[in-house]
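Dear Dr. H.,

I hope your travels went smoothly. While you were away I took the liberty of generating a structure for the chain from your last submission, since the lab meeting agenda had it listed for discussion. I wanted you to have the full record in hand beforehand rather than looking at slides cold. The sequence, exactly as received, is reproduced here:
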Amino acid sequence: MRSPVSWVLTVCCAAAALAGCASGGGPDVLTAPIQVVRTPAGTVGYRELGSGPALLLIAGAGISMDGWPPGMVDALAAHHEVVVFDNAGIGRTSAVAAPGSLSVPAMASQTSALIAALGLRRPAVLGWSLGGMVAQDLAVSHPAQVSRLILAATAVGTGKAVPLPPYSTVSGLTPATVVPQLFPKNQAAAVRAYLSAIGQYPDFYGVSAATFHSQYRAAERWLAGQDAAGRLVGDIRVPTLVAGGTQDQFIATANDRLLASSVPGAKLLLFGDAGHAFLFQDAASFTRDVETFIG
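The corresponding predicted structure, in token form, is as follows:
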């Protein structure tokens, strides 16, 4: 059993890694303004910080760009031009479909329009959960816009993946009740660190219940093989890193393995005692893995 002092240090270190250090003088996403760019697919709200090779982060279902822990974003921005943005229908980003008809391909097309509008020139793309599905579609449908893929806690769209839990089991949950499900039960310190970190965003905002429902349905259709690009994952030709947590309650570990085996040459990383939010729970380690992979 950990000593009280060890436990306190673990909590403090986790919180510091996720929140960042304001005295470091480096990139600070908390002070980066939300900007809006007009694209053929509507307006997109985003933040941009850092310098170096471009890295685009695509969020998962149910979160805005305020869902990325500041310390993680800042660490990546120390060596990269990092862009975080809101998916369709969130914040200042235009909806791309009527309620209930949102699709992964439509989100990928809007993401492609953002890359073009910002002149990012083949960024590396890190997609988490639903964002990883959007990233796969982007690499299939717009291959000239992607240099590398990091696919975190996500799944193939071939129809062979283990389905998501029924929507009825997650609908109606509040951030206070859904966030703990992103981490294993023995990782209460990681839950507190994550909530504390994202709570630092000025005027923190989230996603409406209707938008979350549309996103969840879009992800279900992707996993069921209903989107053409999802069935073409074998056509991806950029270096790909697949990562996941072994205790993920939403994306089964079998899906991580299937995805890695479906993308030619993909590398697989599995994080023990970590769940759907493994990349936040083990932010320091995952960030190093991303940096090593991107080069």
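Two observations you may find useful: The chain has ten helices and eight strands. Strands lie at 35-39, 42-49, 54-58, 81-85, 124-128, 148-152, 240-245, 267-271.

With kind regards,
E. W.
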